[in-house]
């Protein structure tokens, strides 16, 4: 247990001990401390203080644990968090994993939709926003019919990102993958269903601890064999968080993260005549010129525009919800003040 976590816990929550969330279910959390593993709930005080879902513990969190009653009193300081915009009609941040150093984005080399350029780019924006380091894992090497084309597509989608070719079935690349996750580091495995995330983790563990699913022949997509997020410890290495396949990955990120992922496009954008150039027809647009000169692919340009449009929409919705929430808050304050003075008059 890191000494700084113990010190932080003692200062912020006297009488509590630090623990790490290694699993989560409905209102229950598996917490690992120096002594043992406990099944815990958040305390009443925690629920009262929590302002939103993002305040609640997630897998990877360090928490203040009160052993009497197995209660979580608070979440300790978070480092890099992997988050997305929640699915559905609301617009709020959903944290998938906390305190991670590495994010293994897993794509399948078995054809179908398990290796898509836009999918990889979307995951990279999410990772860049977190501040963690991305590693692209190209799995199912044994089922790949055209490795040259697959590598080219991956390099175009993730220039400069470390790539590891693996096969959980044959063991190819597993030594290199294990070497990346050094002791003391925490990684999280992300990717759609059917790319072999659970199989990779089982191979690293040396045992079939996580359930695995079959993929459909039509599109090579898989079922959700992992239904919750769990943290496991790799023998001789660090910790690894398994996640269910994401049916919908709505981004929660700033424009700076998008620009960093599309740094090749951003390089040209810095030479545009206008600082607020949208790269969609303005005079003196260096991005448009790069497209004409063949220095930038049209596919990457279209992907950038699509993701920027999504982020702009997200920011507008967030602003609208913040204004609506502020209005509701002031209405409630006004109502309380009126009731207070009404009671004073009655007195």
UniProtKB/TrEMBL annotation:
Organism: Marispirochaeta aestuarii
Homology family: Belongs to the TRAFAC class YlqF/YawG GTPase family. RsgA subfamily.
Function: One of several proteins that assist in the late maturation steps of the functional core of the 30S ribosomal subunit. Helps release RbfA from mature subunits. May play a role in the assembly of ribosomal proteins into the subunit. Circularly permuted GTPase that catalyzes slow GTP hydrolysis, GTPase activity is stimulated by the 30S ribosomal subunit.
Keyword Cytoplasm appears in the UniProt entry: yes
Record-given protein name: Small ribosomal subunit biogenesis GTPase RsgA
Amino acids binding Zn(2+): 272, 277, 279, 285
Cell compartments where the protein resides: Cytoplasm
One of the record's GO molecular function terms: GTPase activity
Phylogenetic lineage: Bacteria, Pseudomonadati, Spirochaetota, Spirochaetia, Spirochaetales
Subunit structure: Monomer. Associates with 30S ribosomal subunit, binds 16S rRNA.
Top class in the EC scheme: hydrolase
Keywords per UniProt: Cytoplasm, GTP-binding, Hydrolase, Metal-binding, Nucleotide-binding, Ribosome biogenesis, RNA-binding, rRNA-binding, Zinc
GO CC annotation terms, alphabetical: cytoplasm
